[in-house]
Fold each of these.
Amino acid sequence: MPPLLEVKGLHTEFRTGAGLVRAVDGVSYTVEHGETVAVVGESGSGKSVGALSILRLIADPPGRITAGEILFDGRDLLRLSETEMRKVRGRDIGMVFQEPMTSLNPVLTIGRQITETLEEHQGADRVTAERRALELLEMVGIADPRRRLRQYPHQLSGGMRQRVMIAIALACNPKLIIADEPTTALDVTIQAQILELMKSLTRKLGVAQIIITHNLGVVARYASRVNVMYAGRIVEAGPAEAIYHRPRHPYTMALLRSVPRLDRPRQARLDPVEGQPPDLTRLDGGCAFRPRCRFAVERCGETRPTLEATSDAGHLAACFRSAELAAEEAAA
Amino acid sequence: MTVSTADRPLLEVKGLAMHFPISEGIVLSRKVGEVKAVDGIDFAIGRGETLGLVGESGCGKTTTGRCILRLERPTAGQILFDGQDVSGLSSSELVGLRRRMQVIFQDPYSSLNPRMKVGDIVAEPIKVHGVERNPARRRTRVDELLSMCGLDPKFADRYPHEMSGGQRQRVGIARALALEPEFIVCDEAVSALDVSIQAQVVNLLEDLRERLGLTYLFIAHDLSVVRHLCQRVAVMYLGRIVEMAASDELFDHPLHPYTQALLSAVPIPDPRVEAGRAFRPPRGEVPSPINPPTGCVFHPRCPMAVEACKRTRPKLRELRPGHWVACDEVH
């Protein structure tokens, strides 16, 4: 079976006052039916722009998808008309964003926002849509759903609003859900509840997920595969287990080393990733991580390394020295 | 209460409460209720110590910090700073206190004036407090502060928008240090930073603490950063401290059911560890502080709650040396 989603050579650019920003600079990856793929990266790495590009939600101007293919269920989304694309969003691909307060309409009741989706995409009549909305709210664990349907977003807590977003995302039985920092605005106990809910529902319903996050713990808990992004490119990709235990890109290695862990004894000092995040308007032809990399050699300044297979199955890294680093690690 | 230093603690908070009135009506405004943001808490911080204050949004940790800084006038309680009760000081009496107590805010984007150059931002407190009236010497001091925070002094001529988030936070730290304070409230000081930058700033805060003998109140929701940076930690829930202990003790042997729930909710960045963890997110959500539950405020979500928890509010008890817990069901 072909993958559910295949992103090939995606390029998304923004024209800004400071110059051209290649926010997504040649990104390729796949998502299989029913699997959860995490896209990890820091601000400006291109992780959100990449996801918004799949949904074609890039404001033009200043942004533009300049190249690539996004094959979803056999169709190239970049070739669809806007009308066809509207049918994909919310029906075939559900969305959950970071801030449920700004992604819900403040002047419509919760019930109306769910039934609207159902009426729009499935041509459901009012009564059927309302019955389904009630079912959905129950499914996402909202107590007293009948009362909640008549309430407005501001009457709900942050966690409950995110549950409503998930209900809307699942309303039309999508094949894929794109969740952009779905729990970043939430408290840690609520974050745990929401992620647990998303995990169990997507498993039960066989929905694939792309989770975009900067939180390495969230990824470890929920994703089977991981793409690590830096300066618009995927620098490392592979099964979560491999990425966390045998990282092959110096950025991933440094990132994992820099976070304090509750399950390990307290370190005397943290081991940070030195230097500043890259300025995307001033990238040269070399590896974008080079200025912060402790393994950089001359060659890294000349060309940007591409994603290459490592000795692990399905594990890719974009570093000239990754084989060398692996050998060193094996020797140590 | 035991404090790590033999001396008098630098800061002592006794029975601190901050209740915000809820009013209705525009012309004939009347009070219809109150939000008990902070509802009677006690703690002390020794000189050179870092106390972590953790909890979820609305637990009162930020309000506690604001009361100590006297950005709010507390409803009740005492705030003894170096022995002096500052809880009732007037704004003119507070001027001297401001030099000794500073704050580092969460958001390095909104806490720096976008129209001011970095050098002027850092020089502002020095100017306002009349510490150094000579512009050349003030400039030297600003350069010194910037270098101390790991910034090239040439950044003094830049504007905040020309800098990255981590660099801006360093400016915020340099500004907080400008008056040579003894005590700094760090309110989510590293929360808005990227993962790769967070560790840099945590290390900087540690270096500065050692070099300048600073005392911190470190308010944060990220428990792994708190464990790393703090000697002692207090956990707040709905305006009250539910547990307080030395950092290692609290994280290795959490006793309060809320602390246990909080710790189990934090995902560990390791898929193998996560796969082997028994994990139950705490049920329900934090109730409204307008109408908090009776008795123990955590009882509606607590897996250990018994009938008595609905009636009596548990007091903080010292169950092990230096380990305080407000739960009548743990022994």
Note: The longest strand of chain A covers residues 19-31.
Amino acid sequence: MSSVAALEAVASALPTPAASTPAPTVSGSGDDAFAASLAGAVDDLRGLQSTADRLNVAAVTGDLDDIHAAMIASSRAAVTLELVTAVRNKGVDAFTEIMRMQA
Amino acid sequence: MLDSVTITALSSALDALSQRQRAIADNIANINTPRYHAKRVQFEDALARSVAAGDGTAAATIGESLEPTRIDGNNVNLDTETLSSIDTMLRYQFASQAVDGSFSAVRTALRTTS
Amino acid sequence: MTFDAIGIAGTGLTVHRKWLDAVSDNIANINTAVSTDDNAFRARYVLVQAGQSSPGVYVAGTELGNAEGRLVQEPDNPLADENGYVRYPDIDLGDQMAQLILAQRGYEANAAVVDRARNSYESALQIGRNR
């Protein structure tokens, strides 16, 4: 599965954030701040992955001055994907648990 | 989380150290070139100010060494460049590991909660 | 350019190696005698300049030493002219040895830069490896 397809699969399993979601800096308290941070991470995911892809290609075509930029971008994208995936898995587990209790 | 001042500052440091490494390579390649003046890359002060302001981004500035020249007009000092080269390499390794550590920490946190 | 510092040091290696070649050629020919009708062996000196549009150092040209050389009285030499003179190159061994040391030092310094740059790039490649 390509990296973009993996993104789509994870992103589609999460509720789409409201249009007025603020930038992912933790300024509020409790639930609101975490929701905002997570929604920001989902938005960022596509951008981070495309940046990482772009830098990787630049590195092999000789157009990239600093190899560490490509390594950092790849790590950023990978960690953000892991975060979003972990939260989705938790959400699915919780949902399954609730359904079992109601049965 | 991933855009903290720390990671931004480490990233800026890596950019600047990489430029410094190129400047040192240029100086050593031109160690016997007449009228060549050694290049110097500075960024530490600008980065410290940027971090204190809560930002973390800082650009490196490239200047010329003002050390006295030899007869052929060249002022590259091989000892200075050699020490700076080793210093830059070690700092770059450190910053690389520190950035990696930041990502590992987040990954560890993700794993232990699942 | 990815891994730039290595390329820059590479230009330094090339230039210093050419200098070493020129100096060793000069030293090898320090006793090359010719008849007074010909030009003496001319010492070769490599001219260098810093890169204009890209960093590094490049060969700008070659300078040749004087063709007159030194006239030495050697009547037994088969190349000697009617007055017994032979032409030797105008090369000072001490000067050439000093250049040899500079060229060698410069070459080694650039080789060390390649090594350290490679070290740095390898540590950057470790970022994010341990998933």
Note: Chain A has one domain: 29-102.
